[in-house]
Design goal:
By secondary structure, the chain is mostly helical. It contains 19 helices and no strands.
């Protein structure tokens, strides 16, 4: 139905370009929505173990790994943009070098996690500061789940490569399969074999490795024929070292790979800082305000899951046409992705304005929290309008590897966020926090718009 509505908006040859966008966006949206199910399954299982400490341990452990993996999410984003550009140039040798280098870098980072797991665990638990009854359980969860790091880093690398190859169906299948395996494994280990927190953690690790191995199998099935581009066996006069080095990337490509990933990593640090501060600032205002902010942020997360799908379309298709030096097609993709995203803004704003409070009732039955949320609910309604431009530009900038613009926008918007909050918190309290967040989202989009116009890729 939504597709039919937008048909009138995009009259000219919409069936071709918009179909390309939807073929990338819709599977990505399904993948994004299934991601939080992994954590929800674990919480649902430990919620029936008879102690709130188990729930707390899962919450602490999951937050540690979510933060850890989020910081290194550049593996997916950097790989996607560079791969889509190489595909647009039809440089399949570079496509395969990016595949190998991304997986190798991802597994190397995961190896560092495993080698340094004791100091990482100690620092993380020190910062989280869980209560004495939760601390040993959270440590046990961490000690087991850390062995899933290679699988998760590998999945990040492979998913970025798949998106760069214009294929979001495989990441969707991997995400769905992970959830199914996690449910079956965790239920079997906990209720079938009588394990406790260890069973939940082990079920998560099993699901992660199942996802990684499935990704490798699907790569071999769909893209195994590209292995011939890894190394030119007929290369005359090449030494063994030359052939081994050709499995990775040329010096110029290697520099581009790490430059893109460096900018995305630093940009992610600023995003993490804002999100962590938003949570901690709410916590300092009491349990009710913390609960209100947490519930309302679920509306932000739901919108972001959908918008990320269209951002993926922008990075995959935009990067492809940018690499092919097809300026007309590139501009058309940007225009249409913004068109679809504008439609989502209208849809989500109406849904939140008319039925958002009903959604809150689904999340909690605490009447005090729901009552308190009414004072702040209008801020959540503004989230789609405030955040849409930043989401779309993030995808486009990743596609054309203009990651410096993403970094600069994050730095400026983060500084504005803290300036607004500290200037108004004494007078407005939690309203100042939400105003700072809305302005932060708007500022990211504004700075990226200015950067794009200055950059003028086509």
């Amino acid at each position: 139905m939504i597709y039919c509505i937008f048909f009138r908006i995009f009259a000219s040859d919409m069936h071709q370009r918009n179909r390309q966008i939807l073929q990338i966006a819709l599977p990505s949206i399904v993948s994004n929505i299934t991601v939080p199910l992994l954590g929800l399954v674990d919480v649902a299982i430990v919620g029936h173990m008879g102690s709130a400490a188990y729930i707390g341990a899962i919450a602490v452990g999951s937050m540690i790994f979510n933060l850890l993996y989020w910081l290194f999410g550049f593996l997916r984003m950097g790989t996607s943009g560079l791969t889509s550009q190489a595909l647009g140039r039809r440089d399949m040798a570079e496509v395969m070098r990016l595949f190998v280098s991304s997986v190798v870098v991802g597994l190397s980072i995961a190896l560092c996690f495993i080698v340094l797991q004791i100091p990482i665990r100690q620092v993380a638990l020190l910062l989280m500061h869980p209560t004495p009854d939760i601390l040993p359980l959270a440590a046990t969860y961490f000690n087991i789940c850390i062995w899933g790091a290679p699988a998760m880093m590998g999945i990040y690398s492979l998913n970025g490569w798949f998106i760069g190859m214009q294929n979001t169906r495989i990441p969707m299948l991997i995400s769905i399969m992970q959830n199914v395996v996690n449910i079956l494994a965790s239920l079997t280990l906990v209720f079938g074999l009588g394990m406790r927190i260890e069973g939940v953690a082990l079920g998560t690790v099993i699901a992660q490795w199942a996802g990684f191995l499935t990704a490798l199998l699907l790569w071999h099935f769909y893209y195994g024929r590209l292995k011939k581009y890894l190394c030119d066996a007929n290369q005359e006069g090449s030494t063994f070292v030359d052939r081994i080095s050709s499995l990775f990337v040329r010096r110029s490509s290697l520099l581009a790979f790490f430059q893109v990933n460096r900018d995305i990593f630093l940009r992610t640090l600023f995003l993490v800082a804002v999100n962590l501060f938003f949570t901690s600032a709410g916590a300092r205002q009491g349990a009710v305000i913390l609960s209100v902010n947490t519930l309302l942020m679920q509306l932000y997360l739901l919108f972001s899951y959908v918008m990320d799908g269209f951002a993926y379309a922008g990075e995959a298709l935009g990067g492809k046409y940018y690499g092919a030096h097809n300026g007309a097609a590139f501009r058309d993709v940007v225009r249409r992705v913004f068109g679809w995203s504008g439609g989502m803004v209208v849809l989500f704003t109406l849904v939140y304005a008319l039925g958002g409070t009903s959604f809150l009732h689904l999340l909690t039955n605490e009447t005090s929290v729901i009552a308190a949320s009414s004072d702040y609910f209008f801020w959540a309604v503004l989230i789609p309008v405030a955040g849409v431009t930043a989401f779309v530009w993030d995808g486009v900038f990743i596609g054309i590897t203009a990651t410096r613009g993403m970094l600069v926008s994050s730095v400026i918007s983060t500084l504005v966020f803290f300036a607004v909050y500290y200037a108004l918190r004494a007078v407005w309290g939690n309203h100042a926090l939400w105003l700072a967040m809305i302005i932060y989202l708007l500022m990211r989009g504004i700075v990226q718009t200015v950067w794009y116009r200055r950059l003028r890729p086509y």
